[in-house]
Amino acid sequence: KQEVTQIPAALSVPEGENLVLNCSFTDSAIYNLQWFRQDPGKGLTSLLLIQSSQREQTSGRLNASLDKSSGRSTLYIAASQPGDSATYLCAVRMYNNNDMRFGAGTRLTVKP
Amino acid sequence: NAGVTQTPKFQVLKTGQSMTLQCAQDMNHEYMSWYRQDPGMGLRLIHYSVGAGITDQGEVPNGYNVSRSTTEDFPLRLLSAAPSQTSVYFCASSYGRDGYNEQFFGPGTRLTVL
What are phi and psi of B32, to 5 degrees? Predict the structure, then answer.
């Protein structure tokens, strides 16, 4: 059974720092991995989608990497800002049944 | 495009009551799904549909029914609400059923069962 783990559960950093969020998964038979942002009381906003054949994707200050063989993905946020404060979720799309499995998320706080 | 819309935003039910959570998308997406989000557990798939007239169970289907009579709509029915169904419910859609398509999420419905 696919298990998705995100460490740490919470992270607090001063504004301007570069930071890395981690996501690990147990079954490498995935279609893709997607990183989402969730603000309190809101829905999920897609940040980056990495196909299983890709190694990384970039969007602005965000860079996501995927190492399928080791079951790991990282989300790198450069020059963090208070507006980046949110919960970040990673999810893998399963290859065999199209199911999507989520991690519990990392709650990020960027202090001014 | 309105994207994925959900109604209601909030709902309080008594144990044993039934209700339907509405989900609609205007992107002509084939694939639609329902998730629930509980504290510390991430999102879990309840039911999904790969097209009109086709539905299937996800990870936690018990106590819920779905139907897909049109491409646009995918309602989730709670047959007899229980306190364990207190959660935030999200509807999502993507263009196709294969894994190469990005999923878009609705704003969620916060359900409390007393």
Answer: -135, 150
Minimal C-alpha gap between B14 and chain A (Å): 23
Q: How many helices and strands, by DSSP H and E, does chain A display? A: 0, 11
- Residues of B near A (CB-CB distance < 8 A)? 31, 33, 35, 40-45, 48, 50, 58-59, 90, 92, 97-100, 102-108, 110
Tokens 């946020």 — which residue?
A77
Q: Do B107 and A42 touch (CB under 8 A)?
A: yes
Query: Is B108 in contact with A42 (Cβ distance < 8 A)?
Result: yes
Chain A residues near residue B97 by CB distance under 8 angstroms: 98
Query: Quick one: pLDDT at residue B98?
Result: 63
When the pLDDT of each residue in chain A is averaged and rounded to a whole number, the result is: 93
| A32-to-A59, A101, B16, B76 alpha-carbon distances in Å | 17, 11, 39, 26
Q: Which residue has the tokens 């999904």?
A: B48
